[in-house]
Structure formats: structure tokens, C-alpha cells
Design brief:
Blueprint (H helix, E strand, L loop, with lengths): L3 H6 L7 H12 L18 H6 L10 H17 L5 H18 L1 H12 L19 H14 L6 H8 L6 H21 L18 H4 L12
Helix pairs in contact: 4-5, 5-6, 7-8, 8-9
This protein binds a DNA duplex (10 and 10 nucleotides) through helix 9.
DNA sequence: AGACTAATAT
DNA sequence: TATATTAGTC
């Protein structure tokens, strides 16, 4: 990092948030896409190589490490400049980063939030659009569940580790219920011939549209 | 109280 | 069918 200061310099005079958003969107274009990034969970130096050069092997980074690093990044961004419009900008940056993690569904959510942020009494109970579990979101979910092990994988923990803005415990609970049914079905069906109706989760095909998602804004952490 | 989960609703 | 909401339990 070290980019935060520059971000601050973009906005010396205050309220022009739209200008910021545009400029941020502009430099985001140059960033690598999520798929180009080396996963943080991957070791940079292969163990054999480290051994050969007697480099102390780097500790395997876990989901928790990555999650913690992510949290630290947020608080660092927030603390830069000690307040004022810079804070708002920083959290905006994080928000868009997080939206890109979750892709479309979260974008829809935040769009809707700003849309009816008025005084409409029904806005007091801002109804979230129903969450769509994109392959990206689902993969994150599956990774976290696998990491936790099925016994520790409860909605709150999963939600926290997934670290997706706007994702609720209820969202996860609902998905988990379905996922458990799927696992159960797999259990009984292991080594049985594929009934050809198993398109549930099995290798979600790969919509091309999801690969080049417009802005090309990169997620900092992806796997 | 709050979280979990199975059942039920949309 | 996918996701949300409810209701019962711990």
C-alpha cells in the first residue's frame, strides 16, 4: 500500500464525491482482474525451494489470516488522514472493492439502498433484494465451509469469514441449509451413476459474462 | 438474548 | 427451484 496518501490528494477541497468516484474508476481500469491475481492463500516460495536455500518456510496463510489482513486494511484506510472527507472516500473505495468481490447481487443491493434513502416510511424497513448466489459467492461460501469443517460451519462464522459486505447471517443460513441437503444427497449418491439431473452445484459452467465484468476493477483478495 | 436449524412461505 | 421467513429449541 502507500496509495492512500495519493487518494487523499485527489480531493483537496471537499465534497466533490462524484469526481472522486470517476477518477477512482479510471485508475481501477489499469488494475489486474481478480483472476490475474495470485491467491493470498498460495505460497510464494514452493516448500522444496525454500528448503534448498534454507529459507525458513513461510507459514501457510489461512482464511483467517487473509480475513484479518483484510480487516486491517480497512482500518488502515479509515485512519489515514484522521477524519473528514478522506474517511468517506476510503470507505467508498472499500465498498466498491467489496462489491466487486460479490459482483452483481451486492451491487444491486447498494444501488437500491442509495435509491430509496429518502423519507419514505417503507424505507424505514429497507427491504433487501433477494440475494443471488453467483458462482463467485458460492465458491467463497464453499471455501469457507471447507476450511471450517462441517461442525464449525455455522451461519455466523461463515458470514464473518466470507467477509462480504451486505451479506447477512440469514442469507448464509438459508444457503447453508440447502448446501447441507446437497451434501447429504451426495453422500447417498457417491459412486452412483450420475442421474444427469445433478446440475445443482456441480461445476457451474462458467458464464463468460462473469469473467470480464465491465470495469475490470480488481479484488485485492481472491481465490 | 441470540444463534442454530428444520419447516414453511413466497 | 432459489431464497426468505418463521417457529421451535438450546
Amino acid at each position: 500500500m502507500g496509495e492512500e496518501v495519493k487518494i487523499g490528494e485527489y480531493e483537496p477541497n471537499g465534497e466533490d464525491t462524484n469526481g472522486d468516484v470517476e477518477r477512482v474508476a479510471e485508475w481501477e481500469i489499469g488494475l489486474p482482474t481478480a483472476d490475474d491475481l495470485t491467491p493470498l492463500s498460495q505460497l510464494l516460495i514452493p516448500p522444496e525451494l525454500a528448503l534448498a536455500f534454507s529459507i525458513s518456510p513461510e507459514r501457510q496463510r489461512t482464511l483467517i489470516d487473509v480475513n484479518r489482513a483484510s480487516q486491517n486494511t480497512v482500518s488502515n484506510l479509515r485512519s489515514v488522514g484522521g477524519g473528514g472527507q478522506l474517511n468517506a472516500l476510503s470507505s467508498n473505495n472499500f465498498k466498491s472493492y467489496n462489491e466487486d468481490l460479490a459482483r452483481d447481487p451486492m451491487k444491486r443491493i447498494s444501488a437500491l439502498r442509495t435509491e430509496n434513502s429518502g423519507d419514505d416510511p417503507s424505507a424505514r424497513t429497507p427491504k433487501r433484494p433477494r440475494l443471488v448466489w453467483t458462482p463467485q459467492l458460492h465458491k467463497r461460501f464453499v471455501d469457507v465451509v471447507a476450511y471450517l469443517g462441517i461442525k464449525n460451519a455455522v451461519p455466523k462464522t461463515i458470514m464473518q469469514l466470507m467477509n462480504v459486505e451486505g451479506l447477512t447471517r440469514e442469507n448464509v443460513a438459508s444457503h447453508l441449509q440447502k448446501y447441507r441437503l446437497y451434501l447429504k444427497r451426495m453422500q447417498g449418491l457417491s459412486s452412483e451413476g450420475p442421474s444427469s439431473s445433478d446440475q445443482l452445484f456441480a461445476s457451474t459452467p462458467v458464464p463468460q459474462s462473469l469473467h470480464e465484468s465491465g470495469s475490470g476493477a480488481a479484488a485485492l483478495v481472491w481465490w
